Amino acid sequence: MGTYKRIKGTKDIFGDEIDYWNYVEDTAKDLFHRYGFMEIRTPIMEEEELFSRGIGQDTDIVQKEMYTFEDKKGRLITLRPEGTAPVARAYIENSLINLGSPQKFFYIGPMFRYEKPQSGRYREFYQIGAEIFGTDHPLADAELIVLVFDYLTTLKLNNFKIKINSIGTPKSRENYKKALKVYYEPLIPNLCEDCKRRFNTNILRLLDCKIDIETAKKAPSILDYLDEESRNDFESLKKYLEIFEIPYEIDSRIVRGLDYYSKTAFEVIHKDLGEQTVIVGGGRYDNLVEQLGGPKTPAVGFALGIERIIEALKKEEVKIKKRALIDVYIAFQGERGQIEGIKLSKELRKKGIKTFLNISQRNLSGQFRHADRLNARFTLVLGEDEISNDIVTIRDMESGEQTQVERSWVTEIILEKLNE
Ligand code: HAM
């Protein structure tokens, strides 16, 4: 029989890597709660149509990246490629609007996209996302960007850049699209294959082409085509960011890869990962809830990729606190030793001490080796001598030093040693 391998574009996360994941997720939960966001968990699978309608038929995600399958009743099911459409669906389906507006949600979880795997690009990846429903006020947009800034700096990241843009309302975008067509039409023969295709299907995406960068740089700017409302909101957003003292840049080529956006669009890149790798992406989506059959509800949000944030932490060599795996390993000999070990493990765990009780048939020296491999701080020995004298041997696994203490004192003494 052959062995099994994980599916291309997925990963196993364990060992030191887990410390990064906990750091990123715990910091997010703590901070997002501080900004008044409530956690929401939605299913990993949804009806296919939620995404084809929500994200847009002509996007890369819907055209070629979704994991879609038929279930046993022939229904089309998709593994979620992103979190915004599912959260909007949950908001509508559970009538969350009745809880008052605006409302703020955050989520952490895996997303699935059939993309070409490469560094920082996976087929199963994790996002942390935040969404605000029920306000069109640009202060909401600003607050999300403040949260992103606060989060990245709390993680101790420095080399990132926040870029903002406004892509206007769908109506104002029509005029801009016309101007883009005029600009790009004579250039078509020289464009890359993706751009040639997108010229007809999704012309805005030509602006964030990773190949024809110079051509995109010279294209007309969307900021010159904004309607009055979008322009005013963009001005307000900039004003708020200045009051909050958040550094940002304006980049009129940010268009985002999903069709639901209107007005504000923003991205964060990290200098050590390269200009092309977006670590956070978001923006306003005032029409999505209505488009999915809900009441007209303006909304704004963002999502960040955990793998990319961790990559940035490694590049900047941010020190992550290791969770001490095991404080105490309990080694024993014989039946009475085992019974005493079980009792002692209960006592220690009750006090919050991370305890690994021997659960194998190994002899004492085998147990010492095991404790060593597990990086235990102390090993407590309950051998025959210890049992008959009602004592415990404490072995300091760093110095190798051994001391013997009375059985009834051992928990207190370990607590003291761990606090030293
Ligand atoms: P997105 O730009 O498609 O936006 O994804 C957000 C972030 O997810 C990216 O910036 C990146 O860090 C990460 N990401 C995306 N694809 C991959 C991948 N294949 N491998 C690793 N990381 C990836 C959204 O998904 C929107 N729902 C964001 C949003 C929320 N807009 C409004 N609210």
Average pLDDT, all residues: 96
Low-confidence stretches: none
Please give the count of helices. Answer: 15
Q: What gyration radius follows from the Cα positions, in whole Å?
A: 28 Å
Major pleated sheet: 8 strands, mixed
Bound ligands, named by name, code or SMILES: histidyl-adenosine monophosphate
The number of distinct structural domains comes to 2
Question: Order of strands across the widest beta sheet?
Answer: 1-5-6-11-10-9-7-8
Strand percent estimate: 15-25%
Approximately how much helix is present in the residues? 25-40%
Task: Fill in the CATH topology of the largest domain.
Answer: BirA Bifunctional Protein, domain 2
CA-CA gap between termini? 52 Å
Based on DSSP secondary structure assignment, what is the total number of beta strands?
16
Named at the architecture level, the CATH assignment of the largest domain is: 2-Layer Sandwich
Under CATH at level 1, the class of the largest domain stands as Alpha Beta
